[in-house]
Design a protein that fits this description.
The protein is of the alpha/beta class and 259 residues long. The chain folds into 2 domains: 33 residues, no CATH class; 223 residues, Vaccinia Virus protein VP39 (Rossmann fold, 3-Layer(aba) Sandwich), CATH 3.40.50. It contains 11 helices and 7 strands. It has a 7-stranded mixed beta sheet, with helices on both faces. The chain binds S-adenosylmethionine.
Length: 259
């Protein structure tokens, strides 16, 4: 009360009063941006971080990323699935600004510090955000995950032409080439790149060879919205049951297990 009266008085005679608490908080944020954080991944903090980088608008950023509640749903599934004493080797198709990628790397690093996520994305302009890889790398650094992510700038299969505008810098046939190097090595794969049903079915064909026995596939967007546009939900619903078992879905992400 007294502080408020003094501040008001100073302002009236021309002083600019800096709200100290807010100032310190802002300073703290800036320092965090420079130094990174020791805390684990936090969804809202990651969005705030990306907005501060001025990467793009909040709505498309949130709309095109796997929502927080689906990531928690996956954590609940994984917590009873993966042993806590072995590194997890994961494949992640489709980064955009890095929310699900960085969440996965952070989550698996908490299971074992040597866990690795191999990321595949051609770094297309998507939802108005160009060169999203720049933001992904900054988010990776912010959460100290530089040792836990391997970036492959390429299409999972052949180059795709669709809503996105390709800059022509990306490689192709990444899954096929990875099969030459690392067949049967992956514990889990996330599929959230190109959304055409035929393309995703083909990705699943390659992932079958890349996954270990019992390996998990997480498909994003197996919902009515994408079913109406590309038939993506059918890829999950009608998966080849000789290869994959349908585990569970929350209506957004669908989980498959390799037989
Ligand atoms: C929906 S966003 C991914 C969102 C991200 N998984 C998340 O939740 O934070 C789709 C991404 O897939 C990428 N993409 C599009 N076609 C692809 C392809 N053929 N192979 C790999 N990635 C692709 C786009 O560049 C875009 O970054």
């Amino acid at each position: 009360m007294i502080k408020e009266m003094i501040n008001n008085g100073l302002e009236r005679i021309g002083y600019k009063v800096i709200r100290l608490r807010k100032y310190l908080l802002d300073m703290g944020d800036h320092q965090l941006l420079r130094l990174g954080t020791r805390k684990g991944f936090d969804y809202e903090e990651a969005v705030k971080f990306l907005l501060r980088l001025d990467v793009g608008l909040e709505t498309p950023m949130r709309e095109a990323s796997i929502p927080e509640k689906s990531l928690h749903y996956l954590e609940r599934f994984f917590s009873s699935y993966f042993p806590s004493d072995k590194p997890i080797i994961a494949l992640h198709i489709g980064n955009f600004v890095g929310i699900s990628l960085v969440w996965a790397a952070d989550y698996f690093k908490r299971i074992h510090q040597d866990s690795l996520v191999v990321s595949i994305d051609p770094n297309l302009t998507h939802r108005g955000i160009s060169d999203p890889l720049k933001a992904v790398v900054k988010l990776t650094n912010y959460y100290h995950l530089q040792k836990n992510i391997l970036f492959l700038v390429g299409y999972s299969l052949e180059k795709t032409v669709g809503l996105d505008t390709g800059e022509g810098m990306a490689f192709e046939n990444t899954l096929e080439n990875l099969t030459l190097l690392s067949k049967g090595r992956y514990d889990v794969a996330f599929v959230d790149g190109h959304h055409q049903a035929a393309y995703v079915s083909k990705e699943l064909g390659h992932l079958f060879h890349l996954l270990k026995e019992g390996g998990i596939v997480v498909m994003d967007d197996v919902d009515e919205f994408w079913q109406a546009r590309t038939g993506l939900k059918d890829v999950y619903d009608k998966v080849d049951e000789e290869k994959f078992v349908k585990e569970q879905t929350d209506g957004r992400v669908g989980i498959l297990r390799k037989r």
